[in-house]
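User: Continuing from earlier, I have the next pair ready.

Assistant: Great, send them over.

User: Here they are, in order.

Assistant: Folding the first of the pair now:
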Amino acid sequence: MTDKKESFGPGLVLKYTYPTQAAAFRVEVTSSTQLRFQGLEGPVKGVDVTVSYARTDVTPGVTLLTWEEEDGAVMVMVVNLIGLKVHAREVREGKLLALNGTVEVVSSVAGSALG
């Protein structure tokens, strides 16, 4: 766990690492409705995509995100900034892919402390 509590919002930059997929992303919250994903390692290296997302704050530091990708895949993701975990589910062409990984806070939202 981290002693620094973060909130999810524009300006936040995270690194998601998915060990079972040998993949990592840099994720930037560019606005209250858009995320930019940049593939850093593994099969996603070189990916650079911006998605429009919907957000629900589950508890302080835990956020549920959903979006549809250009190819029709649906993503559901829980980002836990307290426990530094990310859990994602992707449904693509009727198949479910589960991704569980870790979160590193690269850059915080100014004035984001949750108390």
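And the other member of the pair:
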Amino acid sequence: MNYRIFITIISVFLAVFSFTAFQTVENEDPVIQTMIDEEVERRISEYRKVRLQKCRERILKVADLKADSIILALARDDFRMDTMPRPEVPERPERPEIKPPRDTTAVVPLLPVDSLE
């Protein structure tokens, strides 16, 4: 009999505890409710701002790495490939026409050859 009383007391205790544990008290004061709502909105907006900032930093980091690798790849390709082609070998010019001198007189030394010795 003691065992039955013990079981009923525990079951009544659990029933009362479960009913009181899940009861909610509604705040009927509108001023407190508006303060709570404002604080919740502030925290949500702050959380979103922090998350967006972290996301932006992560995206910029990845984009920076990709841009750097693209720039390095283009620089390597520029060294391998010359942008200006080699100039062609120029053609040999034509031989100039030899013009005879206008003065056909013989060349004579100004000083006698004997005086130089």
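Worth noting for the second one:
The longest helix spans residues 30-80. The mean pLDDT is 82.
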